[in-house]
Structures are given as C-alpha cells and as structure tokens.
Design brief:
heterodimer, A: mainly alpha, B: mainly alpha, 13 helices
Chain lengths: 282, 281
C-alpha cells in the first residue's frame, strides 16, 4: 500500500489503532449491495432490456398516464397543504404555550407510527358517505371516499409529519433577536413575519415540502382503501404496478416502477440542492 | 403585570393559529385513531378478543413477529457495523455510502417489493433457477423478510451514524491503546455511549417492520393463514366485509403504534442528550 497524502496516512493510522475496519466496512458493503443495490439494479436495468421505445410504449397508455398524473399531481397538492398547516403547527408548538402541547407535539408523528393499512381503513370508514366526516360532507353534496379527493386526504394524512418536523427545529433556533430588530426599526408584526421570518424559514419549508411530496407520490397502503381505485379516475401509480404484476405484466409494472424510481432520485437531488442552499445561507 | 414584547403575536392571532393547528390535528390525526378503537370495541371486549383469537389472525400475528424478529436484528447489526465503520475510520467516498444507506426511504413501498419480484420472480433474474431447485422466496417467508428488511433498512444506521460521528473516536482509541480488544472496546466503551440512540433506532425499525404494507403486499402472495402479515390480514378481512375482525387487528396495530410513540417521546425527553442531535428537543 503506497501511502500518499495526509488523508491516506490518517486512514492507515486509525486503522491501526482501532480494530474491526475490514469487518465492519466489509459487512456494511456486503449487506448494502445484496439487499439494496443489486435488487434496485434489477429495476434500473429494466429499460435496457425494454429499450426506450418499449419503455415509452408501456407508459404512454391513457390509464398509466392518468395514474402518474394523479399520483404526482395530488402529491404536489398534498405537500402544499401540509406545508401551510405544518408551518402553522410548528409556529404554534415553538412559540406558544398551551395545555396539552406535549401531547399535540407527540401525536404529530402518528402517521409515521401507524401502519398504513390501519390508516387506510380508518380514513375510508371516516370519509365514507355514512361515516363521521363523510356524512357531514354528504349533506353539502361533497364526496371524498372513492373519488380522487380521497387520494388527496390520505396523502395529506401520511405526509404531515415531514413538514412539521423540518420547520420546527429551525424555528426553535431562530430566536427572537432578528424579529426584535425588525420591530425596533418600525416594522409591523405582519411585515416582520412576511419579510424576515418567512424568508429565513423558506429552505426548511421547501425541504419539508419536497419530503412530503416524495412520500405522498409513493404512498400506497393508506390510499387504496379510500380512493375506490377506478382506472383513469382514482387509480394511483403504485396501485397500477400491483395490478400489472397480478396480470404477470412485468414489463408494464417495471416501466411504471422506473418512472417512480427516477422521480425519487430527482427528489433526492433536489433535496441535496436545498440542503446546500440552506447551508450557504447560514 | 407581564411586559408585552414587540415580538409577541396579538392575542387574537395566537388563539386563531393555535385553534387552527389543534383543530387540523384533531380532525386529520386523532379522529381516525379514535375511530379504530371505537369500531374494534363496538361489540365489547369479548368480541374483540374473539376476533383476535381467530386461527388465521393468530397466524398473521405470528408471521409478522417472525418477519420482524429476523429483519430488526439484521438491520440492527448492519446499523452498528455501518456506524462503526463511518464514525471510527477515514475512507474515501464516505458521503456516498451515507446517501446510499438512506436510499430505501426514498423508494415507494410498492417499488421496494417490485425489485424483489424482478430478481426472484418467474420472469426475473433468478426465478427459473429457483423453480428448478424448488426454492421458494417470493410468496413465502424469505420474500416477506427481504421486503421488510429493505423498507426498514436505514432506521438504526441513520440514528447511530450522526451520534457516533459526534462522539468521535478518542475514547475507543484510548481503550485500544490500553490493550482492550475490538469487541471489549465496543461492549464497554461504545455501547454505553450509544445505548439510548440504539434503542431509539430499534424502536422505530420494529414499528415499521410490523406495520409495513405495500412492499410486503407485492411479495407475499396473500395466502390466508400462511403468508398474510398483520397489515395484510387487515386488508383481507376488510375486503371480505369482516369489519369487526379488520378493526380488531387494526386496533392491535394501533396500540403498538401508540406504545412506540409513547416510548419515543419518553426517550426524547429523558435521554435527549444521548440521541442524535436532530431528535433533541
């Protein structure tokens, strides 16, 4: 081994002091490769077998396009709604004191902890025309269950924690000084929030929104019970993958899978960009 | 008399925003949870326990426990190994490794199941060979375990990596210099430092392992009493209009979720200093 440069030297030295480098890194790489990377490669390499034309043929059917549009469109709407309410919830939790605050704070993570199938049947029963909320809405002629709005409700439910949990710590660290400065300089409370606080929170809000979008677009369990799953109307892309697999249409299923995976990677890149932007602004 | 600061929101705004936040959480989160328990115990506790004691339900509970019982220890071992390697040594492309470990969180659950179908299915890479040798991975326990491992892959590692990077390597190097073996160093020096963070990661890993639906649904085959985990059994009962049964199993899973939340909150309050910085309140 030719030790060139300080980095290499440090590496060699620390390997000497603490045992277990080969074992721990070896196991890590083996496990990561066999469980995650090779199976993912089976999907990533699928377009190579299909060819780009084959991939496009599989995706460009009206049913698949409708499912992709529904999944990504509703995910965007859900992420926007969650960002708005998530920011308000984070503001209230950080800045105000009220009884039961600890409970409210803990319950935010419920969508992470509650299995999606449980959320699915609960939401479905709740928003059905004879359910607690569905009944109230039905009186006003609004239907949520078994329509595309059901997709939206389930996505808003599942993605809320991301938007709260990304804004909350940034807001805690923000402190009151800048706002006091703005107030001293004659800004009204609304001006202070709009021109000082909100811009400082923006990277966190956008990060939360991107995470919420990614989770909602890929979500399956909580949606399928509530959405009714009518092809080209309320059928989400992950469900269409399952439908195509049940028909042994591997090519069709993997074509949608490739699009979903590409979207995930794009979101990861966007998130990394956001982090870099946020770090630069500090 | 309390002094009013210029950064205090007006009272009407405070009341409005707090009511908005609490109302949103009550309707969106609390109501579905309350409904699960109301439906599960609608016919009394005796009916609840009768529904749980159905042989197929018990088989689903057992399968979920077995799958989590394999997946969680494996991911825990992986999380410790990965965190040890990343925190205690310098090597090239470390940030790439950290990003790759988090990758399964960005993948849709259904896609997570799909990739194993593409590897082990009849039209997949290994399917024909496995069929020739009568090895069952898909629609059997190994497939369910693999899908569970994939979706819970990063939980322990992402908790331990930042924690152990923060703690540095001085204590371990001192122990090693004084003649401790690697295993002794880990057991007596590292483990006491990371135990609460480790527990936190295992807790979240376990909750997701028992509750995973999408990924497991793709690889399970839905054979009643054999390859149905608890969440899949909820769907099967619900689709067969057995609402009492579906909500009984759902309530069981919801209790588990509440227990997880309670323990998680307790860890965040009581041992905040011993958790990764992003969980400190």
């Amino acid at each position: 081994m030719s030790a060139v440069g300080a980095g290499r030297l440090a590496w060699a030295r620390s390997r000497h002091v603490l045992p277990g480098f080969r074992l721990s890194l070896g196991f890590t790489l083996f496990y990561l490769t066999s469980i995650v990377l090779i199976p993912l490669l089976a999907l990533v390499l699928r377009p190579v077998a299909l060819g780009l034309d084959g991939l496009w043929d599989a995706i460009s059917t009206p049913r698949v396009l409708a499912a992709l549009r529904l999944s990504f469109g509703m995910a965007l709407a859900a992420a926007a709604i969650d960002s708005l309410f998530g920011s308000v919830i984070a503001w209230v939790l950080v800045r105000y004191r009220f009884p039961g605050k600890g409970f409210v704070d803990a319950v935010i993570d419920l969508p992470f902890a509650l299995p999606t199938a449980v959320a699915g049947i609960a939401l479905s029963t709740l928003y059905a025309p004879n359910g607690w909320i569905g009944g109230l809405l039905a009186e006003h002629g609004i239907r949520v269950a078994y329509t595309p709005w059901g997709v939206l409700v389930a996505m808003v439910f599942i993605s809320l924690p991301f938007t709260v949990r990304t804004v909350q710590p940034v807001l805690s660290e923000l402190g009151h000084e800048v706002e006091e400065a703005a107030a001293t300089l004659g800004a009204t409370r609304l001006q202070t929030i709009g021109r000082v606080v909100l811009p400082m929170l923006m990277p966190a809000i956008l990060t939360g929104m991107a995470m919420a979008f990614a989770r909602a677009a890929g979500e399956y369990g909580s949606i399928i019970f509530l959405a009714g799953n009518i092809p080209a109307v309320s059928e989400i892309a992950p469900l269409l993958i399952v439908v195509k697999l049940e028909q042994f249409d591997y090519a069709g299923a993997s074509a949608i899978g490739v699009v979903m995976l590409a979207a995930s990677f794009a979101m990861l890149l966007a998130l990394n960009g956001l982090q870099a932007w946020a770090a630069k602004r500090r | 008399m309390k002094h009013k600061r210029p950064t205090d929101d007006p009272v009407w705004l405070k009341v409005l925003l707090a009511a908005l936040a609490v109302g949103f959480i009550a309707v969106l989160l609390i109501l579905p949870l309350a409904l699960v328990f109301k439906e599960a115990f609608a016919d009394g506790t005796a009916a609840f326990f009768a529904a749980i004691k159905e042989p197929d339900t018990l088989a689903a509970v057992k399968l979920s426990l077995v799958a989590a019982g394999i997946a969680v220890p494996l991911n825990t071992a992986f999380g410790i190994a990965a965190a040890w390697a990343i925190a205690k040594y310098d090597f090239p492309a470390k940030t790439v490794l950290v990003s790759l470990i988090d990758l399964p969180f960005s993948v849709s659950p259904v896609v997570s199941g799909l990739i194993y179908v593409l590897v082990f299915g009849m039209q997949g890479w290994l399917g024909p060979w496995l069929a020739d040798h009568d090895i069952h991975i898909l629609f059997a326990l190994p497939g369910i375990v693999l899908a569970t491992i994939f979706v819970t892959f990063p939980f322990v590692a992402r908790e331990l990596v930042p924690l152990m990077v923060d703690q540095g390597r001085d204590e371990e190097e001192a122990a090693a210099t004084l003649g401790a073996t690697g295993f002794q160093t880990f057991l007596r020096v590292t483990l006491p430092n990371i135990k609460w963070g480790l527990l936190y990661g295992v807790l979240l890993c376990n909750a997701r392992a028992l509750g995973e639906f999408g990924a497991v649904s793709v690889v399970s085959g839905h054979i009643r009493g054999q390859t149905n985990t608890m969440p899949l059994h909820v769907q099967l009962l619900y689709d067969n209009y057995d609402y009492a049964g579906a909500f009984a199993v759902a309530a069981l899973l919801a209790m588990l979720a509440l227990l997880t939340l309670a323990l998680k909150t307790l860890l965040e309050w009581r041992y905040a200093d011993a958790l990764a910085a992003n969980h400190r309140h």
